[in-house]
Amino acid sequence: MNRTIELIKTIYEIKQLEDFDEPQIALAGRSNVGKSSLVNRLAGRKKLAKISSKPGKTRSLNYYRVNPDGYFLVDLPGYGYAKCSKTERDKWAKLIEAYISGNARLKAVAVLLDCRLSPQKIDLELTSYLGSLGIPIIPVLTKADKPKQRDRARLQNQWQDILQQDRAPVLFSSKTGMGESKLWEILTEYAAS
Ligand code: GTP
Ligand code: MG
Known about the structure:
The protein is an alpha/beta fold. The chain has a single domain (4-13, 21-191), classed as P-loop containing nucleotide triphosphate hydrolases (Rossmann fold), CATH 3.40.50. 33% of the residues lie in helices and 22% in strands. The chain has helices spanning 35-43, 86-101, 121-132, 149-163, 180-191; strands at residues 4-11, 24-29, 61-67, 72-75, 106-114, 137-142, 170-171. Strands 1-3-4-2-5-6-7 form a seven-stranded mixed β-sheet, with helices on both faces. Helix 4 (149-163) links the parallel strand 6 and strand 7 (170-171). The chain is globular and about 45 Å long. Residues 35-36, 57-58 line the site of magnesium ion.
């Protein structure tokens, strides 16, 4: 299918949150894990979402509409950026919490995890928080072009065990396109759920 992705709205504060009717799938993960690059890859456009080699690029919540399907992908600001102040980190947590917890149209959260790192405390905190709210998790291992096949497979198994899911996490690379069609399939399934 020929899909397009367009930016609908950017918000910085809780008071700007809006109840959309469209089903939504959020993209969450540590700063620099590759959330914005993933949006660009899916969109087939290099500069739709701003990316940066420096962590902490996306400070806002960005709503993208997937056409013709009609659901939203919501790029959340990255967490765990060490250099940002405590005030800023608290602001992040409150904004994300307000977005996630009060959202009846949120179908799933794609949790992006760096394929080169063993499971990190901060990622486990997010996945158990989502689990406690009963929100489905779509685990995506990013930058899968980097590690060796053996290491990728090990991490994939590790995360599948932790999350106790039937399906293995998607190995994804914005650079090569690995996992792109698999991810589309899963997003479409959740958006329609
Ligand atoms: P924040 O906005 O800070 O939360 O970061 P982000 O998660 O949006 O990450 P972003 O997409 O900006 O990517 C961060 C860096 O990782 C950039 O230098 C990207 O080029 C690089 N990167 C992202 N995805 C991939 C990938 O699949 N493979 C490789 N090799 N590099 C990637
Ligand atoms: Mg970003």
